[in-house]
Amino acid sequence: MLLAIDIGNTNMLVGLYSENTLMHHWRLETKQERTADEMGIFFKELFSFVGLDLKVVKKIIISNVVPPLEFSLSTMCERYFGLSPQWITTDLSTPIKVALDNPQEIGADRLVNAVAGIHKYGAPLILVDFGTATTFDFIDQNKNYQGGLIVPGISISSEALYKKASKLPRVEIKKPKRVIGKNTIESVQSGIFYGYAGLVDSIIEKIKEESQSNPIVVATGGFLSLMTQGSKNIQHWDPFLTLEGLRLLAK
Questions:
Q1: What total number of domains does the chain contain?
Q2: Between β-strands 216-221 and 125-130, what pairing exists: parallel, antiparallel or unpaired?
């Protein structure tokens, strides 16, 4: 089996593949202070819960945007799985060309998403990843990764409002019953939800206009279930796009 791990700033997405089939998946909190042994015990418990031994894993591939975790992850893989992980770097051979001013700047997660997106949906393509930050990536018809945008994520935006506005409460992030809020909580929820949905659709339309193309629009990420109710321009909702990209790159 293949163990695919995507380390984000907020969450860690883990997938266990048998050939091309995603057999099990877990979304865990990212904690930089976890030691190799803590992570190893954590994985043993996850595998035990689905009746599997760590020895079933024959290869591990990792996409990571949290550099301090690299040493602990490498040690954990070697100590508990007996394997050295394959790391996603810009040196990997991929079916896309990174057309940035400095190709080394592309995030591992964005590269992985681009590979999976092209494989599953073709090009041109807009990818929207709802994570700690929300990223927008554009791949042209020739499979060139042209760049994109990075904006504060939904959770960051909500937390900043709570911390900086003394009288505004911390609220549950969800779609409100109406646009015009009848109380403070509804007003904040409406502003976050509809404001963010408007931001997403506006950026997608701007990318289409600037690129003079009609790309397929695909979304992924931890806040996917929330935003499926908001955007009118996203055509495909793919919660495991990053894991699929890791599976493809592992080959």
A1: 2
A2: parallel
Kindly report the CATH number assigned to the domain that includes residue 49: 3.30.420.40
User: Is residue 92 in some structural domain?
Assistant: no
Which class for 55: exposed (0-12), middle (13-18), buried (19 or more C-beta within 10 A)? exposed
What's the pLDDT at 86?
95
In a domain, 118, yes or no: yes
Token pair listed for 103: 């190709």
| Domain residue limits at 22 | 2-87
Please state the pTM of the whole predicted model. 0.90
For tokens 């505004």, the residue is 168
Average pLDDT, the chain: 93
> Is residue 140 assigned to a domain?
yes
User: Is the Cβ–Cβ distance between 63 and 86 less than 8 Å?
Assistant: no
Instruction: Give the lowest-confidence range in 33-37, 186-190, 229-233.
Output: 229-233
Same domain membership, residue 137 and residue 217: yes
Phi-psi region of 49 (alpha: psi -120 to 50; beta: other; left: phi over 0): alpha
177 in any annotated domain:
yes
Cα distance between residue 168 and residue 191, in whole Å = 12
Residues noted as catalytic: 109
Q: Mean pLDDT over residues 49-61, rounded?
A: 96
pLDDT(225) > 80: no
Residue 202 burial by CB count (10 A; 0-12/13-18/19+): exposed, middle or buried?
A: exposed
Instruction: State both tokens at 30.
Output: 């990212």
- Is residue 94 predicted with pLDDT exceeding 80? yes
Q: For the chain, what is the largest distance between any 2 Cα atoms, rounded to a whole number of angstroms?
A: 58
Structure tokens belonging to residue 196: 């963010």
